């Protein structure tokens, strides 16, 4: 009843192609964004910002990047952690060595560094496909791990191997405190999400999806595989690099190479698959799932009144996490985004059954 | 099924000079010879059929024309430029489009997106403009959408334009395949068994589409087909292949009565 | 193999051989020393092959890339160590084997069967989930400490060939025995696959699930068998590696090394797993000893992967893998 499209006719292609053609969707999204920007800063606790909202947003950005590569273009990558590291270390070096640079410029340049590295490691994708490609991206991951821990220049010759990000300030206004950090990250992620949505529904998005679905046929209609795959790696790495820089600067404050290791790569891949391959919304849903789950699992024994040692809790967490992944993949292999889409379909019919 | 009111042998549109010529094409996969010394030409604006028993090498021939396979020997001349082999995206850029026997559609995309993908070569906006979706990028999207909608109207698939292609029945998928090829506004259209799996009505529709494309846009058509009725009615000239060799080449009636062709189809011992 | 691919592969191996002998030419390394390192590398290569074999088996038979193989190695080794505290080695071994078969049955029932028609990437992620689960379970039941596994492997190094080379060549007897065990297992598996009817059924399943089903091959039973065999392989690998390195969490990271082995050899090839393992083991050892000091150490973390990556550029389907042909 609420979600009916009757009466909403489109008379121009422009209006048919708009981001949210259904009025109810537009209202919902604008309302949601208003809530996120205006209401949440007053409603949420510091803990919520620090432990859930900010990391969720940054990881969503990285998941978005990975989804472009894996979900839209079909190139499996397990090196995402390494590309995040490139963004983080590039931002660090830029900020520390050229302190006069604007923070936004630092992040964009860091993203571009990640773009170059990502495109470089993407070159093998022209010859190598599928799982073979996934394992070769691990070469990128482990090599970058080693590079950042061995070559002192990247860490400004820090003896411990860890670095601390300089304090954040934009246009003279410092960004401290959880609410400001949250709003900063929210703004960046909103813009990036919109750009990603535009890319995926434009010509390049079709190029990526065609390459994913059948690359031989794509070539026959004139799509050059080199262009399609490298642009996917490049755009994806840009997003992942910026996310890495944000992760290091805004969320962690300081980090060592382990912050971007192969576990991070797997974590992001989980987000993308559980959230939904080839879906912008899915990247967010998957990130939310993976961020909230460990916290919920951690809190659960205490909430249920069962006393368990921290070691036991973390072991059980692992078991439940693994089990839930499998369960989820069985229940909805197309991810949370698919569940959302099915829900909307049902809502269109509600309160009628069919 | 006679769609043309013209006399047999009379072509409906003035054909031009040869737009495509194959000379002495030989193609082998390992020890298997798919094509042996095949030569023929295609005149501009004509409808050329390639027929022959199963396994004669017809699809391989189309694959050679648009660069999916590289022949070991021979030359391909397109619009006066001779080369030893084609490359798929070069063929597309030069104006050759094709459909596939196995419907190489992008199963995860909608009908609209599939056909829009066919216009990929004409989309010029850079990545950044596409990301911002303003100005030239937006105008381009709308302009191409308009053309694609015309093709959708032409093929009568408006009702499924937003459906994911993987969910459509076979007959509609075939039209999407054709639509994607047409979207590129090609000079030469290669059709690989466009009537396969269709009933009489669907064949009449498809034949009408093919004739309209050739008549209205002047597109040269090369088609592989098994239905002899369709071949005789639609095509201006026919090439017959058997075991990778050309055994006949000429007007439909001449080919139909050629002894070599009859033998090939009836399976006379070689 | 096409002529150009063959030439490229030969070029790759020529380069590799040149790199392998360069320490003798440029760093003044004597032959006996070099031979020791080569033998050592080949030995550890055999151990990599052992883990890779489990991966190849499962991929061959069910088309799944089993990321949990490493976790299975650790799990088997942990179970063995703990059980050996209460009973003789042979009994403990039999019990753990039974445990791995039970695990195989559970995995087939709870994970593989519900996911039977899904894409490869979904199955891969499912095995990742299994890996996490096994890690948690193993630690929960048996604790997360480091354990020594003593199965009676000889620990003293032996000197061989002292008649030919002054001072002889030092080899680790443990490695030699491990290599022999691995070799026997590989031979047994190769025989099983090629000569028995179950092996044939497994190969049919690997080719085409639906076709195999339609001629009456019980898919589910096959999968339990395959995962049990992989479990056995994991157990042997766990014993061998655990005896050498101790049973600890990092044991499963060794299994991560099996990945470049598998892609070098080709996902679907048993001889590929062996040859790939030898190549990776050799390459890694040589690079660690001779390249490491030049680059600052720690290269063994990525060398195997980069080696596999470079090889794949020459031959994208691996040494013995099947070429993927796209037909349109």
Keywords:
heterotrimer; A: 354 residues; mainly alpha; two-stranded antiparallel sheet; two-stranded antiparallel ribbon; 72% helix; 2% strand; C: 328 residues; ABC transporter involved in vitamin B12 uptake, BtuC; globular
Overview of this protein structure:
The complex is a heterotrimer of chains A (354), B (270) and C (328). Chain A has a domain at 45-261. Helices cover 72% and strands 2% of the residues of chain A. In chain A, α3 (46-72) packs across α12 (280-304) and α4 (80-97) packs antiparallel against α5. The mean pLDDT of chain A is 88. With 354 residues, chain A is an all-alpha fold. Chain A has a two-stranded antiparallel ribbon with strand order 1-4. In chain A, strands 2-3 form a two-stranded antiparallel sheet. By secondary structure, chain B is of the alpha/beta class. Chain B has 2 domains: 1-95 and 188-270, Rossmann fold, CATH 3.40.50; 106-185, no CATH class. Chain B has helices at 58-65, 88-94, 111-117, 127-132, 135-155, 170-183, 200-217, 228-234, 252-256, 259-266; strands spanning 18-29, 32-43, 47-51, 73-78, 81-83, 96-98, 188-192, 220-224, 237-242, 245-250. Chain B has a 6-stranded mixed beta sheet with strand order 6-7-8-3-9-10, with helices on both faces. Chain B has a 4-stranded antiparallel beta sheet with strand order 2-1-4-5, with helices on one face. In chain B, α3 runs parallel beside α6 (170-183) and α5 (135-155) crosses α6 (170-183). By secondary structure, chain C is mostly helical. Chain C has a single domain (3-314), classed as ABC transporter involved in vitamin B12 uptake, BtuC, CATH 1.10.3470. Helix content of chain C is 73%, strand content 2%. Chain C is built from 12 helices and 2 strands. Chain C has helices spanning 3-26, 31-62, 69-84, 89-112, 120-142, 173-195, 197-207, 209-214, 219-245, 251-265, 270-295, 303-314; strands spanning 157-160, 169-172. The longest helix of chain C is centred in the N-terminal third of the chain and has 32 residues, at 31-62. In chain C, 46% of the residues are buried. The mean pLDDT of chain C is 80. Classes of the chains: A mainly alpha (354), B alpha/beta (270), C mainly alpha (328). Chains in contact: A-B, A-C, B-C. At the A-C interface, α6, α9, α11 and α13 of A face α5, α10 and α12 of C.
């Amino acid at each position: 009843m609420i979600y009916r499209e009757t009466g909403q006719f489109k008379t121009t292609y422009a209006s048919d192609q708009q981001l949210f053609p259904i009025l109810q969707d537009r209202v919902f999204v604008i309302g949601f964004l208003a809530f996120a920007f205006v209401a949440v800063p007053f409603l949420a606790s510091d803990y919520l910002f620090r432990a859930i909202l900010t990391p969720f947003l940054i990881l969503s950005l990285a998941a978005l990047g990975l989804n472009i590569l894996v979900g839209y273009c079909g190139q499996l990558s397990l090196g995402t952690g390494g590309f995040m590291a490139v963004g983080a270390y590039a931002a660090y070096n830029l900020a520390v060595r050229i302190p006069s640079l604007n923070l936004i410029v630092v992040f964009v340049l860091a993203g571009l560094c990640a773009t170059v590295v990502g495109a470089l490691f993407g070159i093998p994708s022209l010859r190598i496909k599928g799982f073979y490609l996934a394992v070769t991206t691990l070469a990128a991951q482990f090599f970058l791990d080693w590079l950042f821990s061995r070559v002192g220049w990247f860490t400004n010759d820090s003896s411990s191997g860890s670095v601390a990000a300089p304090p954040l300030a934009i246009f003279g206004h410092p960004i401290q405190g959880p609410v400001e950090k949250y709003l900063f990250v929210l703004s960046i992620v909103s813009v990036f999400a919109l750009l990603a949505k535009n890319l995926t529904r434009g010509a390049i998005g079709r190029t990526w999806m065609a390459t994913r679905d059948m690359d031989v046929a794509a070539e026959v209609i004139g799509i050059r595989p080199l262009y399609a795959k490298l642009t996917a790696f490049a755009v994806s790495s840009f997003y992942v690099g910026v996310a890495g820089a944000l992760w290091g600067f805004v969320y962690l404050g300081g980090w060592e190479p382990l912050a971007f290791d192969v576990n991070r790569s797997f974590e992001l891949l989980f987000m993308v698959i559980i959230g939904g391959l080839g879906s912008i919304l899915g990247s967010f849903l998957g990130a939310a799932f993976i961020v909230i789950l460990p916290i919920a699992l951690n809190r659960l024994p205490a909430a249920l009144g069962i006393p368990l040692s921290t070691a036991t809790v973390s072991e059980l967490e692992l078991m439940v996490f693994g089990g839930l992944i499998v369960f989820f993949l069985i229940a909805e292999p197309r991810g949370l985004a698919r569940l959302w889409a099915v829900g909307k379909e049902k809502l269109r019919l509600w309160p009628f059954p069919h | 099924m006679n769609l043309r009111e013209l006399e047999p042998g009379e072509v409906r549109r003035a054909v031009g000079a040869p737009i495509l010529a194959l000379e002495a094409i030989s193609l082998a996969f390992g020890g298997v010879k798919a094509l042996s010394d095949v030569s023929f030409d295609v005149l501009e604006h004509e409808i050329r059929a390639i027929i022959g028993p199963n396994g004669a090498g017809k699809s391989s021939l189309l694959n050679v024309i648009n660069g999916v396979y590289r022949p070991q020997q021979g030359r391909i001349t397109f619009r006066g430029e001779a080369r030893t082999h084609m490359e798929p995206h070069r063929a597309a850029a030069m104006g050759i489009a094709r459909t596939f026997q196995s419907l190489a559609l992008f199963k995860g995309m909608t009908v609209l997106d599939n056909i829009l993908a066919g216009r990929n070569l004409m989309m010029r906006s850079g990545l950044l403009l596409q990301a911002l979706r303003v100005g030239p990028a937006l105008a381009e999207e709308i302009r191409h959408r308009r053309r694609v909608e015309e093709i959708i109207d032409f093929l009568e698939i408006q009702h499924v334009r937003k459906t994911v292609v993987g969910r459509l029945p076979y007959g509609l998928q075939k039209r999407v395949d054709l639509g994607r090829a047409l979207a590129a506004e090609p000079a030469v259209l290669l059709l690989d068994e466009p009537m396969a799996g269709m009933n009489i009505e669907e064949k009449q529709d498809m034949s009408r589409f093919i004739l309209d494309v050739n008549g209205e846009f002047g597109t040269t058509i090369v088609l592989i087909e098994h239905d002899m009725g369709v071949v005789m009615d639609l095509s201006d000239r026919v090439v017959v292949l058997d075991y990778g060799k050309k055994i006949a080449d000429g007007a439909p009636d001449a080919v139909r009565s050629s002894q070599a062709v009859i033998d090939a189809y009836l399976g006379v011992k070689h | 193999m096409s002529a150009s691919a063959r030439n490229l592969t030969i070029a790759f191996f020529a380069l590799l051989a040149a790199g392998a002998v360069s320490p003798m030419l440029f760093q003044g390394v004597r032959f006996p020393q070099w031979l020791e390192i080569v033998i050592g590398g080949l030995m550890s290569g055999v151990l990599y092959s052992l883990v890779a074999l489990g991966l190849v088996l499962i991929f061959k038979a069910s088309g799944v890339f089993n990321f949990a193989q490493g976790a299975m190695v650790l799990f088997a080794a942990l179970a063995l160590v703990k059980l050996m505290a209460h009973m003789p080695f042979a009994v403990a071994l039999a019990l753990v084997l039974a445990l791995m078969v039970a695990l195989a049955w559970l995995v087939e029932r709870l994970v593989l069967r519900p996911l039977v028609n899904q894409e490869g990437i979904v199955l891969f992620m499912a095995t990742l989930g299994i890996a996490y689960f096994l890690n948690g379970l193993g630690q929960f039941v048996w604790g997360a400490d480091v354990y020594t596994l003593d199965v009676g492997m000889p620990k003293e190094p032996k000197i061989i060939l002292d008649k030919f080379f002054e001072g002889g060549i030092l080899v680790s007897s443990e490695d030699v025995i491990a290599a022999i065990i691995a070799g026997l297992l590989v031979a047994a598996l190769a025989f099983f696959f090629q000569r028995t009817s179950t092996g044939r059924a497994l190969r049919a399943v690997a080719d085409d699930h639906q076709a195999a089903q339609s001629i009456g091959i019980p898919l589910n039973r096959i999968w339990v068998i395959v995962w049990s065999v992989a479990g056995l392989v994991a157990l042997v690998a766990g014993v061998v590696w655990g005896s050498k390195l101790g049973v600890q969490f990092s044991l499963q990271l060794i299994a991560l090394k099996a990945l470049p082995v598998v892609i070098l050899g080709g996902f679907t090839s048993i001889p590929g797993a062996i040859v790939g393992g030898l190549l990776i083991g050799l390459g890694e050892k040589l690079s660690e000893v001779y390249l490491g000091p030049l680059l600052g150490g720690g290269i063994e973390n990525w060398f195997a992967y980069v080696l596999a990556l470079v090889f794949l550029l020459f031959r994208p389907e691996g040494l013995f893998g099947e070429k993927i042909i796209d037909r349109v």
